Amino acid sequence: MQSVKNKKAVILFSGGLDSTTVLAIARDAGYSCYCLSFQYGQKQTVELEKATRLAKESQVSKHLILHLDLDKIGGSALTDDIEVPKDRDSNDESIPVTYVPARNTIFLSHAIAWAEVLNAQDIFIGVNAVDYSGYPDCRPEFLEAFSKMANLGTKAGVSGEGGFTIHAPLLKMSKAEIVTKGLSLGVDYSKTHSCYDPVKGSACGRCDACVLRLQGFRDAGLTDPADYISSS
Is the pTM of this model over 0.85? Predict the structure, then answer.
């Protein structure tokens, strides 16, 4: 990616492994980063504590946390009274109950709105289509369709002021490649959080997010520095 020093970018930022790597990639490319996080009714609110601390340490231009009531809609183990699945069969291709209905569509819509106000044309998101849990909103087809919609339905997109570009630098990377990339950029993964079902801030080691993360570090020949109550 060419250097774009001081050009503004909105970074969808959860404080997890993927979004923290994306933030490091955008900063390394020279973007002035505006991090956007959400308190959306998720049960694992420790991620917001991590995101706040990481954004401050990274000296981003601004860190905005928006409040959404997706728990009132429910339908996900992350927002509703539904048990988070553990030790799921890796060959199971069904969409798991940890999928939050339309979450990336909702998050990207807010990112576009903020970017329009900031006069920023670039939005970064940490979706991955290789090592992921089967979520439909992590696929390249979704990102392409959303980008077209964003540029058709905004003042910035239709007025000639400059349209939006959705960047997903991790899209085709394995989790091991993501970890290796982040470490090369100085990411301290001990400060990130990925678990769907933490206990007193410690990762469970058995949900989909933990299993993928742990496997990524193993494939990279490394040990995950995050705090786990158990590991697999």
Answer: yes
